[in-house]
Amino acid sequence: MKIENINSLISGTIVEGGASIDKEVDCAFASDLMSDVLTLHTDKTVILITGLCNVQTIRTCEMSDIKIILFVRGKQVTEEMKELAEENEMTLLSTSFSLYRTAGLLYSAGLPGVY
């Protein structure tokens, strides 16, 4: 599923990395626990769905080689987060939907989970 399709499904906003909207996403992982994110080991293109909106989220995804992050519950991305994401060639999206609703919409549209 392409990033632009994901963004449309969740009535989202592309906060950073708009040039990557044609990129294909293979699967999704939803978590607010960055320790769980660090356990991911896959060669697939993963989108992280999370409500944890801080620099540590960007750093964790950098370490886990996750290039697409979707922030839920209307969380606001800071300038520092945008700069760090740009440096790491990441795409950041945001939606006002809950984590549960967002994951459900994407799963129903055919985007599988990592596990």
Key traits:
Udp-n-acetylmuramoylalanyl-d-glutamate--2,6- Diaminopimelate Ligase, Chain: A, domain 1, 115 residues, single chain, five-stranded mixed sheet, 5 strands, alpha/beta, 5 helices
Rg over alpha carbons: 12 Å
N-to-C span? 17 Å
Number of strands: 5
What is the H/E string? HEEHEHEHEH
Report the β-strand fraction as a percent range.
Answer: 15-25%
The tally of helices reads 5
Q: Which architecture does the CATH hierarchy give at level 2?
A: 3-Layer(aba) Sandwich
Structural class: alpha/beta
Number of domains: 1
As a percent range, the share of helical residues equals 25-40%
Largest sheet entry? 5 strands, mixed
Quaternary organisation of the protein chains: single chain
CATH level 1 name: Alpha Beta
User: Which superfamily, in CATH terms, is the homologous superfamily?
Assistant: HprK N-terminal domain-like
Can you tell me about this structure?
The chain contains 5 helices and 5 strands, in the order αββαβαβαβα. Strands 1-5-4-3-2 form a 5-stranded mixed sheet. The chain is globular, with a radius of gyration of 12 Å. With 115 residues, it is an alpha/beta fold. The mean pLDDT is 96. Helix content is 35%, strand content 18%.
Short characterization:
The protein has 115 residues and is α/β, with parallel strands linked by helices.
